[in-house]
From TrEMBL:
Belongs to the cation diffusion facilitator (CDF) transporter (TC 2.A.4) family. GO terms for biological process: intracellular zinc ion homeostasis. Coiled coil: none annotated. This is Cation diffusion facilitator family transporter. Pfam families: Cation_efflux, ZT_dimer. Keywords: Membrane, Transmembrane, Transmembrane helix, Transport. Its main location: membrane. InterPro entries: Cation_efflux, Cation_efflux_CTD, Cation_efflux_CTD_sf, Cation_efflux_TM, Cation_efflux_TMD_sf, CDF_Transporter. GO terms for cellular component: plasma membrane. Residues 209-284 form the Cation efflux protein cytoplasmic domain. It comes from Teichococcus wenyumeiae. It is a multi-pass membrane protein. Residues 11-202 form the Cation efflux protein transmembrane domain. The lineage of its organism: Bacteria, Pseudomonadati, Pseudomonadota, Alphaproteobacteria, Acetobacterales.
Length: 295
């Protein structure tokens, strides 16, 4: 089991533990805000299971039907997580709306809030680890799971503040109001995640900073070539695809052109990690006099 799969499996365990803690917090207090927080954790469990399935499937090697591998499966998990975040927000809004018509004072708020704080701390710590490792492994599924957890942390903090404020002031409508406000916040988070994940499925180019770095490496390592044009890039899970045309002098040998390609590929793979580089070599009559010029 590789690192990404171990982290995804750990997410399922953490999500179940946090769900249990939040259910206890709601049972102790009867707070609608804590009930809403627990409902979001049910979604967290489903999202963690989806992430585990996606990471497991994406780790499968290329085969005859999937010659470029299975890495895009992680984007489907990320899209699902974005949708589940939105569903959780809508569930919270529904519970908050119902509680506004009949608010009540939470029971045992101190004990319930203590349990909720422990669950929130666990989510925050695991989310930080997932974000760090997801970036290092370039795993959309792990990054989506991390964002989901951070949305849950924001919700939980708002809920804790709301329940504490109700207990301290006796203003009962603060409980459902703050639950509704945190739901609006995670709606925004879910929308952002959906947009980014769909972008990966639609083969969006890599981010501008990375694209500039790719262009700089191509220019530095292509001594002997004349120019490079028609550069195309995309991410597929943990793999970055780079494709371009390289113009060389018409009298250059195949062996020399191949050496230039090898240098460029080695530099790009050292920068990108998992990468598939495709270079189409062309004679100088095909030059377009734009694109990436050789330093």
């Amino acid at each position: 089991m590789d690192r990404a799969m171990r982290l995804a499996a750990g997410s399922v365990i953490v999500a179940l533990a946090v769900l249990g803690l939040k259910a206890v917090a709601w049972w102790l207090t009867g707070s609608v805000a804590l009930l809403a927080d627990a409902l979001e954790s049910v979604v967290n469990v489903a999202a963690a299971l989806a992430a585990l399935a996606a990471v497991s499937f994406s780790a499968a090697p290329p085969d005859a039907n999937h010659p470029y591998g299975h890495a895009k499966a992680e984007y489907f998990s990320a899209v699902l997580e974005g949708a589940l975040i939105i569903v959780a927000a809508l569930l919270i809004l529904r519970e908050a709306w119902g509680a506004l018509s009949a608010p009540h004072m939470p029971d045992m708020p101190g004990l319930g809030l203590g349990v909720s704080i422990v669950a929130t701390a666990a989510n925050a710590g695991w989310g930080l680890m997932l974000r760090r490792e997801g970036r290092r492994l370039r795993s959309p599924a792990l990054l989506a799971d991390a964002r989901h957890l951070f949305a849950d942390v924001v919700t939980s903090v708002g809920v804790v503040v709301g329940v504490a404020a109700v207990a301290a002031t006796g203003i009962l409508w603060l409980d459902p109001l703050l639950a509704a406000l945190t739901a609006v916040n995670i709606l925004f988070s879910g929308w952002q995640l959906l947009r980014e994940s769909v972008g990966g499925l639609m083969d969006e180019a890599v981010e501008p900073a990375l694209l500039n770095r790719i262009r700089a490496l191509m220019s530095q390592e292509a001594q002997g070539a004349l120019e490079m044009h028609d550069l195309r890039t995309r991410h597929a899970g943990r793999t970055t695809f780079v494709e371009f045309h390289m113009v060389v002098p018409g009298d250059m040998t195949v062996s020399h052109a191949h050496e230039i390609c090898d240098r460029i590929e080695a530099a790009l793979k050292a920068e990108l990690g998992a990468a598939i580089i495709t270079i189409h070599v062309e004679p100088e009559v095909k030059a377009k006099h734009h694109g990436v010029l050789v330093l």
